[in-house]
Queue: 4 jobs
Job 1
Amino acid sequence: MLRKTDNNGQTMAELTEKPEPSQRRLAAERFLASVEQRAFRMAMIATRHRDEALDIVQETMLSWVSHYLDHPRDAWRPLFYKVLQSRIRDWQRRSTVRRRIMVWFGRDTDDEDQPVDNLAGIADPAAGDPANDLANRQTLKRLLRAVERLPLRQQQAFLLRSWEGLDVAETALAMGCSAGSVKTHLARAMASLRSSLGDCL
C-alpha cells in the first residue's frame, strides 16, 4: 500500500478522523485504499516520475478528504478522479514552465526529469504461464507507452472510461467537461491507440 504522510506527519487514516460517524470514516479509508494504486498508475502514466506521481496522489487524497468526504458515497469515485485529473493538469503546467526555464538557461532537462522506464512493474500480473505472462507484460508496456503519447484530454478520457470503468457522466464530472467532449476525446484516443497498437488493443 502506498503510504505517505502530509507535511504535518499525518497519515490518511488520521486525516479522515474528523467529527464524522465512525462508519463514514471507515468507509472513506476503505475507499482511499481501493483507489490509491490505480490513481498512482494514472499519475505515473502522466508524469513518468515515481516521486511526482506519489505527490500527486497524496495531494489528491488530502484535497478529497478536505472537500468531498461529506458528499454522498456514490459520488466519491468521480469526485476523487476529478481532483486527481486537476492535480495532473497542474503538474503538467508547472512542468511546462520549468522546461522553458531550463531551455532559457541552456539546459534541456535535469536528472529529476529522467523518465521511469519500467512502468510494467507497477502492475500485479496474475500468476500463470510464463510465456503468456511475458506477452502480457510486453503488451502492457506497449499500451502504456502509447497512452503516454496521447494528448492529455484523450489520455484522461481513455484511462477514466476504459481503465477505471467510469461511465460517461462520471468521466465528464472528473474531467470537468461535457459528456459529448468525453465521447470525442475517447474516440480520438481509441483511434490513435488502434493505429499504434493494431491487434494488441
Job 2
Amino acid sequence: MANQKELIEVNNMKCSFTLEEWKCPEPTWTESGKYCIFHDPSLKKDIELFKQKLEEKLEKKDYNFKGYYFPEVLNFVNKEFEEDVNFEEATFENANFYGATFQNANFSGVTFEKIANFVEVTFQKNAYFWEATFQDAGFEGASFQEDAGFVYATFQNANFRGATFQYTEFSVVTFENADFEGATFQEEVDFVDATFKIANFRGASFGCVDFMGASFQEGADFEGATFESADFEKASFHEDAKFIGATFKIANFEGATFHYVRLKGTTFEKIVE
C-alpha cells in the first residue's frame, strides 16, 4: 500500500496561487484540489505533511514563503537564514520567533543575514521576535493582530511603514535605521531603553507609548505624529528632534535631554511634571 503522503499530492496539477507575476510551482494536494499544502488556507490541512515539506525547503535553503498559510506553532529557534527570506503576504495563525512568533511559530534567536521580507504579512495571534537579528527587515504594511515582541532584537534597517500593532514590546532593541512612518500602535507599545541611530515616526499614531530611557543618537522625526499618552522620561536626543505638528493628549518629558528640538505647531493637552 502506498504511503499516504505520497498519495495526497496530485503531481500533474500545479497550485493556483499567484502573487503579482509570480506563480507557485508546487503541486496541488487532494484535500484542496486548488492549492498546494503551503497555500491551502484550510485549518484542517495535513500539519505533518506541511512540516515535512517545509523542512525539505529549509534543507535546500529555499526561503521563498510568499503567501504561505502557517497553521500552528513552528520551531525556527536559533535558525540562521543565510540568504534572502521572503514571507510576503504570508499568514501566520500563531507565530513565535522568540527571537520571533507565528498562531505560534518560534523564531527565538533567529538570524536573518540578508533581506527578511515580511511585507503585508498577517500575524493572527502572537508574534515574538525576541533576540532576533535583522540586516534588512521589511515589515511594511504588516498586521500584528495580537501581541508582538521584539525585545533585545537588533536591526540594521527596519521598515515598519504603515504597519499596524496591538500590544507591542521593543524594549532594549537596537536600531541603526528605524522607519515607522505612518505606523499605527492601537494599544500599548514599549520602547524602553531602545537605541536609535536614525528614527522616523512621521505621521505615526500611538495609543500609549513608553520611550523611557530611549536614546536617539542622530535624528528623531515625529512630525505629524499623534499621541494619546507618551512617556519620554529620561530619553536622550543627541541631535535634531522634530515634533513639528505633533499632537499630545498626555506627555511626560521629565528628565529628557535635547540637543535641538523643533516644536512648531505641536499641541499638548496635558504635560506631566
Job 3
Amino acid sequence: MQKNVVRKTIALLFFLTVSVNAQTDVGTWAVYKNQLSLSESVRFDTQYQHRSFNLDLAQDQHLITVGLSTSLRSGLFLGAGYRRLETNTFLENGMYQKAAIGAAFGNLKINNSFMLEERRIDDDFQMRYRFGTTASYPLNPKITLSIGNEVFLANAQGSFNQNRFTAQITQEIGKNMRLHTGVMHWQFSNIKRWVLLCTFTHSLRI
C-alpha cells in the first residue's frame, strides 16, 4: 500500500512538471547540503546549488551559502550566515539571518520559518523578507512527503518578489544521508517556472 502511494506521488510530481503552458520555463536545481554538528545545539551549515534552465548554460546560476545555526529549545532554531549567487548577468551576495519553529500533530509536522536577507546585487542594496511554511508526513520509516510554500517580499520594485511552492519526497539512503526529489512552482510578478529539484543532504558530527 505504501509503495503504491509513493509511486503515485512521484507520478503526480512529474505530471505537474509537464502540465505547463508554452510561456512557462522549466529548469532543474541540483543541491548539496552539508550539516556539521559542532555540539549538541550548534551546527555549521554549507550549501551549494546549481540552477539550470532550458539546457542553456548561459543562464546557469550558482548559489553558495555558509552559516551557523543553533537550537534554543525543542522546535526552535536560529541561524545566520553568508550567501553568494553568481550568474552571467549579475552577482548577488550578502548576509542572512533566519528563525524556524516547528510543531507536531501526531505524525504530521509543521515548520514555519522567517529569513531576512541583506542583498547586494552588483552595486544595489536591497532587503528581502522570506516567510515559509512546510508540512511533512512520513509514508514509511524511510520516506517522507513534504509540501511547502515560501513568499518573498522586498523593499524595492514593489513588495512582492517571488513565491515558491514545492512538493518533495525525502528518502533515507544511508547513515546520515538523505535524498530529496520533487518539483517547485516558481512565480515572479512577470514569469512562472517549473523546477525539478534534487537535493542531497549529508549530516556529520565532530
Job 4
Amino acid sequence: MTFILNILHRDMSILAADRKAVAELPVTATPDISVHAGGGSINHNYKKITLNSTKSLALGIAGHTQDHYYIHEIEWSVSVDEVLWKIRKHQEGFLRFHDRTGLSTLTSFMANQGIASFFDQQADTYFTNTFLFSPIESQTRLHRGRDEVQIFCAGSGSEHFKKAVGIEDIDTFKASIKISCTPDACIPWMQDAYRKISANDPGSGAEAVFVVSTRSNPKFRNIEHSG
C-alpha cells in the first residue's frame, strides 16, 4: 500500500515515495505513529526509498516489507550492476514454481513492485528499471531516458494515478517541461499528485519524500519540499 513515482529524463531522474505505512499489529506510540481504526497503527514517516552505498542508484519499493529483505544488501552495494543483479536474484528466488502443490492452495497474495533509477556514464543517459514479482510471476523492464519526460509509478496508488491526476493535467505538465526539465519544475507537480492520489487511495500518504540525481550532480540526494 504505497505510491512510488519516478520522472525520467535524459539529463535527470527524480524518485518519490509517500511516507505512510500501515502496521499489521499495534506498536508503541511515537510522534510518527498514530492508532489505526482497525486496531493496528500507522507510521507517517516510513522509509520506502533506498540508496546504494555510492548513491549512484535510488530504489523505491511497494509491497509487504518482509518480502524485500534484500534492502540491506542494496545499501551495502557499490555499483549499479551489483544492485540490479541482486534485485533480479531476489525476484527469481521469490518465485515458487518448484512448490506447485503449495501454489495450488494459495488463495491470494500481493504483488511486490519496485522502481530503480540511475545514471549510466558509459551510455551517457539515465535509466529506470521497473519490476514486479510475486510467487507466480516475475517482470522487469529497463527504460532509457529520452529528451522528453517519461513518468513511471508503482504501488497501490498507481491504480489511481491517471484518474486522480487527470490525463489532461499529465499531458499539460509534460508539455510544460519539454524545453526545461528541472527538479524545481517537477517536484511541486509531483507533490500535488501525491495529495490527489491519497484522496483516492487510503493506503497512500499525501506527503512525499524526493531524491534527485542530475547530470551536473549525479549522486542521488534528498530534496526538501514544502507547500
